[in-house]
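Subject: Sanity check before I submit

Could someone independently write out the structure tokens for this chain? I want to compare against mine line by line before I put it in a report. The sequence has 90 residues.
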Amino acid sequence: MYGGKCDSFWKGANRLGMFLVLLFAVCFIWYFVRSVEADLHMRLLKLAFFGYSGMDVKSFILGAIQSYVWGYIFTGLWWLACGCGMMKKG
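---
Independent answer below. Compare away.
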């Protein structure tokens, strides 16, 4: 996957998932730091994440889990597009 070779699926998916969780956390915290368009920010989060109800712990956990799962989905799609899952070792 990196540099023309196919690395471990689980390693790449975990990295992407953790990165997406970090981005979600920044987005969640940004609501409290700069709430100029708080209503728009809240509506976008509700559109992007299933079960998101507001700026509470339950919604944060649901959003973080969904972000992590999307990392695995995107990595799987990338692997299929690149043909990494079809390669034979050796």
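---
OP: Matches mine. For the report I'm noting this point. Residues 52 and 62 are 7 Å apart (CA to CA).
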